[in-house]
Amino acid sequence: METNEVSLHRVRVFRFLKSTGAWQTNEEIAKATGIASRTARGHTKALVDLNILDQAEVFPAHRYRFSPQAEKRNKAYVMRLRQASEIFGLSM
Question: For 69, which DSSP code?
């Protein structure tokens, strides 16, 4: 389920997880990107659905990371995230 618009918050989540390469909780993502944890949850769920992120269902909190196969799985959306990053003035 892709949308035409890419938000600044989604770009921040994408950039953080791509740069860290490590498994992160939504709380850690929210803290690092300056967004609300509920917002982080929404974006991580969407990015998992788009095959951009891998999800580990562990207790007490699920963890997410940028998928090494993201480019193969959904190259078009990864490109849209990169273009949006440039438009928002964030360097990759």
Answer: T
Number of domains observed in the structure of the chain:
1
Q: Measuring CA to CA, how many Å separate 49 from each of 1, 37, 62, 72, 87? A: 7, 18, 15, 15, 24
Tell me which DSSP letter residue 24 carries: B
Three-state secondary structure call for residue 42: helix
Instruction: Flag whether 91 is in a domain.
Output: no
Residue 66: its H or E element: strand 63-66
Distance CA 69, CA 91 (A): 22
- Interval 7-18: pLDDT, tens: 999 999 999 999
- Domain that includes residue 80, residue range: 8-86
The token pair at 27 is: 């709380």
- Indicate which CATH number applies to the domain containing 49: 1.10.10.10
Task: Say what the pTM is.
Answer: 0.92
